[in-house]
Design goal:
This protein is an alpha/beta fold. It contains eleven helices and eleven strands. Helix 2 packs across helix 5 and helix 3 crosses helix 4. Belongs to the LysR transcriptional regulatory family.
Length: 305
Amino acid sequence: MNLLMRQTLPLLELDILRTFVAIAETGNFTTAAETVHRTPSAVSMQIKKLEEMLGCSLFRRDARSVVLTHQGEVLLSYARRLIALSNEAVSRFMMPEMNGVVRLGAPDDVGELILPEVLRRFAETYPSIAVNVSIETSSTLRRAVAERRLDLAIFNATDGTLPVPGEILLKEQLVWAGKNCGNAYLKNPLPVSVWEEGCIWRARALEELSQSGRDFRVAYFCAHHMGQRAAIRADLAVAPLARFLVGDDMVALGEKDGLPDLGHYLIGLVVNEEAEAPAQAVADYIRSAFARMERRPMDMLQVAC
């Protein structure tokens, strides 16, 4: 009897599981459809087929979001493992030469908030390539690539001054971030939270404040973006941040609030000219990820590759 049941159990389809995982990670059917290169209606049909096969609802839907049910949470764990195992097996036959260690550098904001998801997805596609990440300032990272201590690096640059060699991955808005309903921006002198010397956000912010004639003081100093966010959330200071870093408990401030416009900055990529195939594969994956982020800038922390 048990043998008969095992023989007649339906098989989970990897394409449908990929769609299921994409919806779970993005919380949106339309965004997931873009990720798996299908139409929203096709994605809906795939999930309907999966739910009918398993005999349970996998998502709770409302007008604004899609969240997993308890059964969906259970399936998500299996789905990720099945997809990863499939990728590993296929890569052994189709990409046997793609293995090795890649040395990648990134600034603090990209390295902590964007890269982990990008590299998790990269590992699913290239399980035999190990990526070692170094978090440093942009100038340090570019120098490390030039000296061949890194294979490639993501870096921040002032708009209009992209270093050579280098390519633009994304142009992002730089804003003043303050606590939502806070009053730090009203104080005089203005309390500012900044990074260490060499940070382009710091240089832009202090230059614009000086040119505008706004009195300010450095009230909080930290070399990591999490420290800046802590100062903002405590309403101790305002800080220059990339627009995508402004969380729900913060507000983007600007000229209407008496603060100078900070314009945009560039996120760039530099690859060692002698980089081998594994490093080039990482570079291509990063380019693809940032291309998707540029088309969907408000979803930068849910990178779809």
